[in-house]
User: Fold these one by one.
Assistant:
Number 1:
Amino acid sequence: MKRKKQKRTTVRKSTMKRRSFLRGVLTTGAATTIGLPLLDVMLDSEGVSFADGDPLPVRFGVWFWGNGVRPEHWVPTGGVDWAPSSELRPLAEAGVKDWVSVVSGTEIKTATHPHHSGMAGIMSGAHFHQDATTRDTIVSTFAHPSVDQVAAAHFEGTTPFRSLELGITRFRGTDEGTTFQHLSHNGPNNVNPSEYSPSRAFGRLFDTPFDAEIDLARQSVLDSVGAQIRDLQSRVSRSDRARLEQHFESVRALELRLAAGESSCMRPANPGDFPDVGGREQIREQNEAMSDLCALALACDLTRAFSMFFSTAGSGVIMWPVGASNGLHGINHNESAPFPIAHAATIYTMEQFGYFLAKLRDTPDAAGGNVLDRCSILATTELSEGRTHSNQEFPILICGKGGGALRGNVHHRAVGANASEAVLTALRGACIPAASFGVDEDYLYRGRTLFSPGRATDGFSALLT
Amino acid sequence: MMAMIATLGCEGSIDDPPGEPPEWERDPVEREFRPAVPTLRRLTRVEYEQTIRQLFPADVVVPSDLPTDTILYGFSTVGGSELTLPPLEVEQYEASARALAEQVIVTRAARDVFFECDVAEASCFDAFLLRFGARAWRRPLTRDEVTSLASIARDVGGLLGDPYRGAGYAIAAILQSPHFLFRVALGEPDPEDESLLRYTSVEMATRLSYLLWGSGPDEELSRAGAAGELVTDAGLITQSERMLADPRARETMLRFWEEFVQLDRLVSAGKDPDLFPSFTPSLRASMHQEVVALFADVYDRDVDVRTVFSTHRASVDAELAAHYGLPAPTAPRQTVTLPPEAERGGLMGRAAVLAMWAHATENSPTFRGKYIRTNLLCQEIPPPPPGVVTELPEATGTETLRQRLDRHRTDPSCNSCHVLMDPLGFPLEHFDPVGKRRELDEGMPIDATGDVDGVAVDGAQELGDALASSERVGACFARRFIRFGVGHLESRAESVEVGRIATAFASSGYRMQALIQELVLSPMFRKAAYPESGCAEGDTNDCSNACGEGLQRCEGGAFTACSAPTAETETCNGRDDDCDGHIDEEITRACSGECGPGIETCVAGSFGACSARDRGTEECGGATAHVDDDCDGRVDEGFGPQVVNSTYTNARTYHPRCDGSTERIGLDCNEAFHAFCSTAPETCGTSGFGPLENSGDVAIVACVEAEVLVTSYAELAVFHPDCASTGLPCNSAIQRFCNDAGFPTGYGPVRENGAEVTVACVPGSVAVETTYTELAMNHPGCTTSAPIGPTCNAAINRFCRARGAVTGFGPVESSGNTAVVGCVR
């Protein structure tokens, strides 16, 4: 019979920029299973920051759904403590309205092609990027990082995962480039794909056995891979150099995570996966599993930047729970007034979002209160409505309390304002000191030079404390 | 209802308007051919899997959690040239590489097969690295590369105490390398045209093998590559003919066909289960197989590939035959000839394609027409600008779908685009959204007339015949194959060569073998332009680093060496050797003290004190608590056991559930008291138990010097079959487990973590047999009817103290009135 001595935690060289969370654990001398994600003992006596003075985390997230809303049922009335519209009522019913602010009336200032402009416009504050060598098809990508990656860059080095991307309903769009297939971008064709398998997401976040020696061995391999990438970079074209730079960053990220040692976090049960039943996507079950994983990952401070991709831009998701038989994108195009399925689909989508917010609200945070109190979440889509594919009257919600930065429960109407202002507000709501969001640029589109005024330098102070 | 696309301003922005020659035939500007720059091509998912299978023994399982291809411009190969590796995918490749390496080192037999010698011998392992590395990286390894990989194996092998595990990490390193995950081809100056690069013979071996086999070069191709044969037409012809005869080439061409048809869409095509209950997963799979077989047939016979659009042949199983209204086949899968009255024609009339390009409940002549227009004719349909209402006229209930679409097209702004799609889709109106034949739509007869660029057709067969005789369809097919093969969107500067290949393809009678051969010999496949990075003559580049200023000048399309000080490996010398702005960062070395190994960390040019301790006098208190100060293998000996007056308020900080109300005794409190006794500065020893006595917030705890061992319930069950948690059976099991390990007594579990169960064996203790009658005299609550718990803890504590011990725990065994307790002295 084999017995081993109890492992002692060994502290190795520290390579993360700031490892406040892990450092907190190590000072307790007990890098072991713990009942709550963040322990009181890691905090200072007032419970407002880590024992070593680092501030407690505020997180930034994106919750995205495709194909817009029905504006006549979406825009609420009132300002402070707004009165819910029928499509926003699910959020009130989920008991999270106090955390939800609504921005109405803004528009994408960089609109040329509805889905592509809407997606790249709201997520990156810029015109989409189209491969210049052809007009063969509409295939586009992002020229600039998406907002979740702006936040990820700000938080970089504080948590084991730079960002987290989870997908709910699967990609049912067309071959029109990364703009249609992915949310999180770091530049042209540089995407963070969403994980659509709850069990794989669980494995990546929580089922990572810690073994100091094995992890050291893995680091030595990654180190050599990094050196090979660096060496190769000097010999390739400029665009390949940029691709290899991301490869290097990705390798480095894993290396740093291993170097940081064991994370101390409650391990949830593996949620399993949710294959189609009778040809139908298990939308609610998938949403709940992903929401639960995301909430715990945030509570454990595994990441501070995330995106929940409920459906893709122009998604053909079949919203069967509301009686839809065809894909949502097609229904949006073809349904006649009063658009019953598009309307019901939006309500259903908000019910799923309501579950997510309520989950964050019900997840305790080390700082006291709950995780939703310490989040700023931009919830939005790529169109105002599917029927006209308009990029005006853009649907935007800013949710959470941002650790005190966001007021919550305010409806702010800003007709004709740049939607990037709302995005900037959400970033500032996560205490990210961004001077601006988006890009003003001249852009060549179909042989014409357009001016794309995507940049915003002001947020909506009505939403901030 | 499928008005997918309607637009204003459609006219005048179409790449190849119907009726006009393709762009490459009419664009007068770009007549001169210029190849693309070399691009790193990421292995697609299939290429990765096939390459792994080629490198590893047949019984090795390729992990399934691998990056998913992003399809760009229709093909995974284009996505592979454009996308990079985000953190998630690096993690997937890392996990895959480790899982693969693990499989070849896991057993003695697997090792012998894979390494062919003893890897502990440097000569053996270097030879292995040269052999395996060259196959994985598709080129010979440099001496430095071998040295670097060998040092990984040596270091890790030493760390883990097993040279084969070290070798496994070297294999994992090879499989995570950019030289494996990317196909690196940089080219060399082209002797025929100094303004261009050509791919080297070794690089051509890789290009050829992935084009034709979707995998790395075999031995013969590597030989030809190394021998310089693949920069000549003759060498390429010899090798490609040999490779095309191999079944792997057929598989690769069928994969191209699947991507060309976009068959992956069939998997996600949702159909209303109430309307189409027959659209089962097995029927879907059979439909998929039929479309693959269509192309396999023309490929195997090497006839005009356009035959796929008109052929009557169909590969069916019983389910698909029934779907098509055909008699059941006599074999599980059979190729049959569709009867003329089926009127399906070839590809466009087959169920998979009809289903992919339809909605979940109804047809879409627009989708079907759009597919033909954009993918079979290579013509563009622009999207509607924002704000255009794309809604179809409301259904009247007295018209067919076609009639509704006809009304839609009376609006000129809609017509300009719909006229490009609908008339190509109408001939397929005899087939419903799952590709079943139908005679009526909305109860009315179907009008299946349409036109293919001015040629009137009626029904799917005539549509198929028109496509099968179209030159444009042939040219478009060539263009798509070239795109798949070169892995990038054909540029305008390449269009003259694309046109030349298309023409040669036509002259060959549109035979696939001829198209492949044309591409293999084409400069599009063999030549490259100098990368733009490259630079313009005289450009300068600031390459300064932390060690100093640096500049590079552009000479002959490439930058000269950087003039900044060279970065070297960081050593402990007070200098920033690696020029990253940090001095002596992260440098440690092993050292040893009297008490064992430790590390020394470099600070400002010299190594600091060794972290290992020197021998001292055993002490307890503050920093010396729980430390083996005198290095005798025992911790805090002479300072225990201690009885500590503690509280649940204190215990809660060690385990949140042991708070006096949620739990007062049990596993979580065991863990709390154990942690308190083994870590708190005010306690001595390595473990503890309790509560000996408890009342309100007070919990009295004993801290002892114990040997803390990790076991499992499975192992403990060997000692007592009913041991699964806290309680009498486990008390017995742990007692016997500790006896077996040479200790007089033991207690626990003090901690559970997954399958691991931690217990404490107590050297300075003695097992004392007593009775519940006697224990009850110490505390009346400890009886045979309550043989374990807080009252027995108190009884045993008092019982042991009365016998001169400090305290005690148990019962470690019990049977009837008999109880054995552990007393600690």
Note: Chain B has a mean pLDDT of 87.
Number 2:
Amino acid sequence: MIKIENLYKSFDGNEVFRGISLEIMKGEVLALIGRSGCGKSVLLKHVAGLMKPEKGRVVVDGREMDRAKGRSLTALRDRLGFLFQGGALFDSMNVFENVAFPLKEKTKLSDKRIQTRVLEELENVGLSGSEYKYPSQISGGMVKRAALARALVGDPEIMLFDEPTTGLDPVTGHAIIELIDSCHRRLHFTGIIVTHEISKVFGIVDRVAMLHEGVVWAEGTPSEFSSSKDSVVRAFVGDSGSGEGRFKGGMHEKI
Amino acid sequence: MGLFLVKAVLFMVIPPLKFNRFLKQVRFIGLQSVVLIFLTGGFTGMVLGFQGFYSLSKFGSDAFLGPMVGLALIKELGPVLAALMVTGRAGSAITAEIGIMRMSEQIDALELMGLNPYRYLVVPNLLAAMICLPLLTAIFDVVGIFGGYLIGGKLLGVGAGTYFGEMANYVEMQDVMEGFYKSLSFGVIIVWVCCFKGYYAGIFTGFGSEGVSKATTQAVVLSSVLILVWDYFMTSILF
């Protein structure tokens, strides 16, 4: 479904990607982990076509996202949903208007049908009763829920989550993760969750990929990560254990 | 920056137009600037009344106060001062709004929805400014002319017939059109610069509130300077 091939990117001479390759299958949810500043969000923006790589390519369902322009780019983006780190709700609109916005602008649904759909989606994310509040009047957790409702209202095939729990207390963070999980079970989207809060997402993802030093340092299932002997992975996962092993694609490889 | 203007003009002539957003910007740029334009126009005219009468009476030509005030306002001061006022009031707000939208990823969100940010953020402002600036300039001119009469006529004794009669003799349609062309182009300059600075706030001025603050300052300064420079070139051409 999503294929990232040999991606290179640098900012002001600082190489962020040095040949990143990654593949995400249809219906799979991948957690993208790594230290702050390693380029997780940048990679997500490449997948969404918001940034262009210097070398390499991003292929979404057979189409090159980084070369798509105009209508073909719009068609690809119509299949995407993106949950931004800060929510990116339009601050001049209330919650209802925010969630209704993509439907009003992109579909020919009647106002009544849009209203039903928006209220349904807000109920799904637990925001019933907050429809007419503005982003500045609601908590961080509610902003994330509203942003999730807006991202999901168009029934996307691919969902990209940029640090969905950052800045939230542990209880609200868990609630958001559970919400993402329940939405995935309901909609069966292909997803990438960028996070550095591993413990929260390990229970809901199929695979984990770790970015380190500009490459995909390790890749495998959550259980493989938990039992990894690679020192970089262990340092990040935070469990006890030591070793020099590095694994990829579910197979442990000594390096 | 040139490509930004080309794109904005292109999306302005290719439908659809976001009409509600356009109306909102007409209200913001035009309607909400009227009081400011009334005040600045009135006082500019009153100052011209004093200064004009003082200068002209030295040559015994105080009867030409009307044409002097009228021509100065219609050809130069009206378009330029109205544009500078709109830059300070609306242009800075446009930069700040778009800059904050850029910083908080709202523009990225628009793009990801497959929606063209130019159609939502730039085109409505451009069209609104192109309509409102000539109208605001016209209000500035009219209020200024009456301000000049208030001083020249009511306070310093130039007759209403002399003031307005001589003005009608010397102010021609060509002068009015010169002011119109200027105000129209100043509207484009304000929106072009202010939208551009906000749109690329993160890239050129750094991130965060400081980035928005710098972008806003740069937008106001650059717009103001460009208005004065462009005014010189237009005057040279239309003289």
Note: Residues 65-103 of chain B form the longest helix (39 residues).
Number 3:
Amino acid sequence: MADPDNKKLSPEFLDALKDMVPALLEQVQHENMDEAVAILAKLQQARTEHYAGTTFADLLKEKAAELHQRIEAGETESALETLQELQDARDRGLYQEVGRLTRALHSAITNFHIDAKPGEGVQELSEMSEATDRLGYVVTLTEKAANTTLDLVEESMPVAGAMKEESARLKSEWKRLVDRDMSAEEFRSLYWHLDGFFTLLNDQSETLYNNLSSILLAQDFQDLTGQVINKVTSLVKEVEASLVDLVFMASQVDEITGIVREGPEVAAEGVAEVSDKGEGPQINANAEGVVSSQDDVDDLLSSLGF
Amino acid sequence: MKILVVDDFSTMRRIVKNLLRDLGFSNTHEADDGSSAWPMLQSSDFDFVVTDWNMPGMTGIELLKKIRSDERLKSIPVLMVTAEAKRDQIVAAAQAGVNGYVVKPFTAAALKEKIDKIFERVDG
């Protein structure tokens, strides 16, 4: 007798059926029940694989018709079996999707590596595996660069100040020479003063030049921190996309199972209380309620009577 | 003139200290948030406070409110130098009694102008 379900079964399952049934019969004949059960389990697995490729919606249509048929025919027991199959398929879909998303998230996090340039920094970079560590690295690098720059600036300012002071002093002496208001004694003193000043100028301008080029080099953090931040940004995007998938999948499950959820309550509108905690820098100066410059701050304060 | 600079980032404290020194104020002290600034303010006689808003522990606005409600400290001028740039926050700082508000990133000229203005008003 032809199985009415045959049309819907996969050729792979039918092949497995033809393949395994003689072996099953043989094992049963020899009363090797463990082997027989193992073959049955394989058959069951081959049968359920048939559903893996079809969507739950297709399966629902297919099984609903079957369920209807069986109830009409008064076959309560097989109708319940059909229901159970549906239930199983639904759970399987859910688990598969959750599993897939978990794997995607896991690999997104573990694949989060940065391509460090050979040489400097490789050791430090290879020891870090967490996004938070990487952001901590950004903080460390930028702080180091800021401190290096500040050190050099603090070192340079007195140098420039001394040059300015010394040149002002010499200029007033030089003016007296131009005005011919200087004794021969004073001129000799100015002569050696100028000589010393040129030596000083040579040394100190070299110090300034070197400090400026060190400040220039201290900006190399931008390359590394830029890479790290781009990586973290793409990780966040990947995680967000996966979460969107998860939400979408959950909504499909809800749709299938007929669960109705109430949306989150919309936050009450009104003037938000100003938090003492602070909100950090405003990235978009054109956003509502954000001042775009110091002039805006001054205007606002003067409108308040400041 | 004894000045307390309150900011959780040491680099920002250094920048503010350098700018203040250029303006002729070299007696500057540092604190990394309101909680560490408070005992310093109480045990010493500061003439001026420059503070950030967003800091761990006690924030700048909390420090400002605390200063204004303290009998001995309430008239110390406080300048806020902060990245907080929402109109509501600036209004809140004004209501809490701030003497000046500079938004980061700022220029040396902007800082100088605010400080001059504060002392003009205090002296006058």
Note: Residues 1-7, 112-118, 122-128 of chain A have pLDDT under 50 and may be disordered.
Number 4:
Amino acid sequence: MAVNPAGLLDLSLADGVELTQLIDEPGAHISRRIYGNDEIFELEQDRIFRRAWNFLGHVSELPNPGDYVTRDLAGEPVVLIRGDDGEIRAFLNSCRHRGMRVCRADRDNVSYMRCVYHGWSYSRSGDLVTAFAEELYDPGRLRKEELGLIPVTQVAIYRGVIFGTWDAEAPPLEEYLGDMRFYLDLFLGRTDGGTEVVGAPQVWDVSTDWKFCADNFTGDNFHLYTAHGSVVDLGMLPPDPMSLSYGYLVRAQGGHVLHLVPGPPDPSFEYFGLPRDLVPQFERNLDSVQLGLLKDHAWSVGTVFPNLSFMQVMVQGDIGGPNVTFLSLRAWMPTSATTTRVFSYLLLDRDAPEQFRRDSYEAYVRTFGPSGIFEQDDMENWEDCTRVNKGKIAQRHGLHHGMGLHLEPDPSFPGPGQAWPGSYGERTQLSFYGEWLKWMTHERPWAS
Amino acid sequence: MSETTTAAELLPVGSDDYSRAALFLYREAQLLDDARFEDWLETLHDELVYEMPVRQSVMPKDGTGFVDGMTFLTETRNSLLTRVRRLQTEQAWAEQPGSRTRHLVANVLVERGAAEGELNVTSAFLVTRTRADLPYDFFSGERRDVLARDGERLLLKRRQILFDQTVMKSYNLSIFL
């Protein structure tokens, strides 16, 4: 990456437009050119996804030594494997001999990662153990100790969630997450046993620029009453379109964002509707500020920059059914400028009671994922936005992101970061795009 | 129908119960393709269990890859009723304008079920979906159904949809399989 003395990367696109012209955070305008654009996609891979801490998986997907799952990291195949020492490691899933993937299932348990092409075999720790016909190499030519699988440059775990980055310069994960950890702990760190993945992720392909998914999950609460109007019509959301407008939009350090939305004044909406049996654990694991925020809110959606989103929301899975909360993680993996592979996980607190586990699972599958009565309408919007914004005429005109900008951060909000009052507004979207621009233009985006 | 079902236990093609089961599936396909969802709901048993497990790509030693405990659909009659009611609102954008589907059902095998009056029916399905000017989506797999006799009619009491894809190559599942 070319860098100028001010620590800025090369800003020019092929047609002479500069990246800094694409995002006007103070003016609340976003250029349509950032979507569905091959040049931008390549720059994002280079400047965001090969540098940022990316979601890779969850420790509960790999309970035993030898368990592996295969994933992508910045568009390249990686394998996560638990070693005999219990450590989870991540490697480029590519044999050092011809480049073949050494792990080809979505999941397995293996003694060795053995390439099916010529038989080079790697230990669960990634070391090359055997090549084929080693006696046919000149002495000293096959230096196996230098031919282990290429490790993901940094791998770290936060509250059970596994992250990786290809950048040796990236700060430690905890620093990257910064004070977003305070909020992530409301969902991932509130119980003694932490969370676990239920089954496996739902995975599906959507013809959208990944940024529309992340944008929506920055805490776009005001799309509910139009995009999800069907669910309002069914009586599964309160009829007043302003009834979910309360709460906060929060920007933590590093451009990580979320919203926190209170439920109606009914005790069943306290603690996000989580099982009351777990409250003593919340009291043990959270500080008093976190505990207060957990008690006072019912819905939260947010995004860890760049593309890991989460939601803890109460929904009705079917007409007449109870409101039940679920916790989902989703990774929006860009596969091209116009396509995204979605990984959607349901997480449960390991200590959650049996009936709640069943109810939460049903609520999640019925409302989110490709068949969900909420989410199926989201893809309708994201795909259409991606198609239309590619137009050269359309691109002459920016997109308006100006809701709620007159509001000042509330100094009395007890959590870290900036919190704007009310959950209808575009502060979190603008924060996301501001962060995007910083990563697209700065040599050291995490430092500025 | 289980893996241990023998050929001798399969009801002959053209036998009374076989024909009833096949007719149920063909009529259901027509109801779904014609978007006659209210009529389709009438074919569902009150105790219906309707599931479509998530699948992963695994080595043969690990079986078929269907995931224990996670699905793309986990439905009851009431949740399917909810989906139909949703389509009847004027804001179900994923289906407004609507999908055009073709449910093709083949390889129908029928055996007597565990309970009196029940039939276990397996079939292969290929569902095509197109919408607006979008290219075709294909959904293929196996259905494992239990049909229960209710007077003169059969009702769908259980459906397991064994989907062929591990990564759903469709942007949504706003149709019924």
Note: The two ends of chain A are 18 Å apart (CA to CA).
